[in-house]
Design goal:
It is a single chain. With about 375 residues, the chain is α+β, with helices and mostly antiparallel strands. It has 10 helices and 9 strands. The strands form 2 sheets. Strands 1-8-7-6-5-4-9 form a 7-stranded mixed β-sheet, sandwiched between helices. The longest helix is centred in the first third of the chain and has 34 residues. The chain is elongated, with a radius of gyration of 26 Å.
């Protein structure tokens, strides 16, 4: 009876320690290869409050199970030996939760301290960047759309400048464009994340999608659904049309933009409406980068009380900020730069005044 009780406790302890160490194993693999296996469960390999609390509850449950087994056989011979086994096993059951709590303090606190998050001063973002605020003229082409957005920028520039320092005039203008693009659509389909949710392929247009020859600016402006490809392409068009050098940044499952503004590359993600005041490759690779400044703007898709709410948008925003908070090791192909080659239906972006935009910056850093 004592041997069976000891074996039961060893099985419980081994199970508990295996569960507790899984995030650490995944974290080690992530730092070595850039692959986060817990991302398959919409999670992160770091040790946060959720994992720490879960292990604490499991520890308590295993102590309760061990105590129940002890009480059940308390009338059997050698009860004091089993009591000794229970007393010795309790610290083994408690230790994983203490270990994870220490790991959480060492990892999360250090990583989060790397980022500095700015929130813009309060202005009426929904009024300024809602479609009705600037689409008060006929829009027959992407060029017409750019002219409408530029006119909207000129009329609202002084008010927009009240949000606070962005680092320069070009950064301010590019962030204005990002807010315009971010408010064009909601991210993905509202009924199911598994349903296609891009401008050209959604529940309204059909899963087959719309061919290039049938795409117009009207389709983009009428749509209420967009994906990161739509956001990044429209952002790229506005930047190029303004003569601002830009490029696409691609990571697994997501694409966004970088723009060369005020003498430096900065990262703009219109899908989640976040500005990173550095280029993405440096944020991702440079573990010696001790400060990452991020400006988080209001996000249309993350307002729970609106019909535009998408849970995926908030999850993606948090995931990207977490990635920025810790320098993760990139594997080959995990992050790539692409020239801003837009589909033909956008037309050839040109500077205001009819001049072609400045040449794109070379690929890479």
């Amino acid at each position: 009876m004592t041997r069976k009780y000891l074996l039961s406790n060893l099985v419980l302890a081994a199970t508990l320690w295996m569960l507790a160490s899984t995030p650490l194993y995944c974290q080690w693999i992530w730092r070595m290869t850039g692959i986060d296996f817990l991302a398959l469960l919409n999670n992160q390999c770091g040790i946060g409050e959720g994992k720490s609390t879960l292990v604490s509850w499991i520890s308590c449950a295993f102590v309760a199970i061990s105590a129940a087994l002890l009480i059940r056989g308390f009338n059997q011979p050698a009860r004091w030996r089993r009591l000794l086994v229970f007393v010795l096993c309790v610290p083994i059951f408690i230790a994983p939760s203490l270990w994870m709590e220490r790991g959480r303090d060492d990892s999360i606190s250090r990583d989060i301290s790397r980022i500095s998050i700015d929130t813009p001063r309060k202005i009426d973002f929904s009024g300024m960047f809602g479609k009705k605020g600037y689409l008060n003229r006929p829009i027959a082409s992407f060029d017409d759309f750019f002219l409408a957005v530029t006119d909207h920028w000129e009329r609202n520039r002084s008010e927009y400048e009240e949000i606070g320092a962005m680092g320069g005039a070009e950064t301010l203008k590019a962030s204005f464009f990002m807010n315009v693009v971010s408010n064009l659509w909601s991210l993905g389909d509202s009924s199911s994340p598994s349903v296609a949710g891009c401008v050209r392929q959604n529940r309204n247009t059909g899963t087959a999608g719309i061919p290039d020859e049938n795409v117009s600016i009207g389709l983009y402006l009428r749509s209420e659904i967009g994906c990161c490809t739509d956001y990044s392409q429209m952002m790229s068009y506005l930047l190029q049309r303004s003569g601002i050098r830009s490029r696409f940044v691609s990571i697994p499952g997501h694409v966004f933009n970088e723009a060369f503004v005020d003498g430096a590359w900065k990262t703009f993600d219109p899908t989640i409406n976040v500005l990173y005041h550095a280029q993405w490759s440096r944020i991702a690779e440079d573990s010696d980068l001790t400060s990452v400044r991020i400006t988080v703007f209001p996000l249309r898709s993350s307002e729970p009380d609106s019909g535009d709410y998408r849970a995926e948008a908030g999850r993606l925003r948090i995931q990207m900020i977490v990635l920025a908070s810790r320098a993760y090791k990139l594997v080959s192909g995990a992050c790539s730069y692409m020239e801003d080659d837009l589909p033909a239906f956008f037309g050839t972006p040109r500077k205001a005044g009819g001049q072609p935009p400045s040449p794109s910056a070379p690929k890479g850093i």
